[in-house]
Amino acid sequence: MNRLTIVAIAALATLSSGLIAWGLGSASGAADARIACSAAEDRTTATHAEAAASAATGVLYTERDVRQQLDDLAAALRKDFDRERSSRAAVAAAVRAGAVRLSIPVAAAAPGGAACSAAAAASAGDRHEARADIAPEAGLALAAIADEGDDAIRQLNTCIDAYNGARARLAGEQLTEAR
Length: 179
Hints:
80% of the residues lie in helices and 4% in strands. By secondary structure, the chain is mainly alpha-helical. It has two domains: 3-100 and 135-178; 105-131, no CATH class. It has a two-stranded antiparallel sheet. α1 (3-97) packs antiparallel against α3 (136-178). This is Bacteriophage Rz lysis protein.
């Protein structure tokens, strides 16, 4: 072997070992980069999982609070209905027993038998209006119509209160989440 061949072989060996070292280093660097990316992805996933768990817990607490508000309003409405039902039953019993009379205003008769309007009687200084008694069951039937209207208004107001309370609670929750 001549000297040129030995130098060429040595140069080739050096170049090969350099390429092999570079390849191994490059592969090692790629593995390190993959490990670093994987660790960053794991941290991001953990952060997102914590945020999702926190949001879910917040939603559960908000739902519980809104449900409690609705239960409280429903209980108050039932209590109010029960109180009104008792009061109405007591009035109805008094009407049926004759202890309470139901009447309506009627046009008053003027002296001498001629009828005059209630407005004319009031303008003449007559503060006593003429009244006619109503049959107890007819009066109670009329009162029941008014009572049903009162119940419907009470229910509607409770519904509005429930809606506004839930909306305010949820709006407050959204403001808290936005911060």
